[in-house]
Amino acid sequence: MKKFLFDLFPLILFFIAFRFFDIYAATAVAMGAAVLQIVWLKARQHAIEGTHWINLGVIVVFGSATLFFQNDAFIKWKPTVLYWLFAVVLVGSQLLLKRNLMQKLMGGQLILPGHVWTKLNYSWAFFFVLSGTINLFVAFSGYFTESQWVSFKVFGSLVLLVIFIVIQSLWLGKYLKDQSE
């Protein structure tokens, strides 16, 4: 749970800063928080996961563009680019390198047949593509305010993730049950 909250640190601070200031202050705070996250991990001599580096790179690029151009569209694109990048990495590593990143990530906790790992990998990629698409709709469709987009970015995305994990768990339960018999 501590790791989960630590990973959400920049997002939580983004939300708080937005509530007290505006999208530009929130963007600067999220950028600073992402940098502090890396500094903290390095100072504590902890391993820095690839997702931390990717998130740092994306927030610095899109956050800097947001602040430089004073255009919130860049920061609204950031979650989509991050999600789609994760999807490309998952699919690309599967197809090009014949490496299943979900199996590498979760293989220590689960024993599954190869075809199930492949389905799991592709389902996560699909989830990231769908999440990125939903983010674009909420951010740019005109049906939602900036404040609603921020709330969706923080809470709606988490709810989607929890729902997806529950569905995945129910689906994987079938394979795990077969192993225990």
Question: Which descriptors apply to this entry?
Answer:
181 residues; mainly alpha; 7 helices
Topology, element by element:
Layout (H helix, E strand, L loop, with lengths): L1 H19 L2 H21 L6 H20 L3 H23 L5 H6 L7 H27 L5 H35 L1
Helix pairs in contact: 1-2, 1-7, 2-3, 3-4, 4-6, 6-7
Care to describe what's here?
The protein is globular, with a radius of gyration of 18 Å. Helix 1 runs antiparallel to helix 2 and helix 6 (114-140) runs antiparallel to helix 7. It has helices at 2-20, 23-43, 50-69, 73-95, 101-106, 114-140, 146-180. By secondary structure, it is mostly helical. It has one domain. The two termini are 31 Å apart.
Q: Briefly, what is this?
A:
The chain has 181 residues and is an all-alpha fold.
Which range best describes the helical content: under 10%, 10-25%, 25-40%, 40-55%, 55-70% or over 70%? Answer: over 70%
**What number is the mean pLDDT?**
91
Largest sheet: none
- Give the uncertain stretches in residue-range form: none
Proportion of beta-strand residues: under 5%
N-to-C SSE string, H for helix and E for strand: HHHHHHH
- Radius of gyration, whole Å: 18 Å
Number of strands: 0
Number of helices: 7
Shape: globular
Could you tell me how far the N terminus lies from the C terminus, measured between alpha carbons in angstroms? 31 Å
Structural class category: mainly alpha
Number of domains: 1
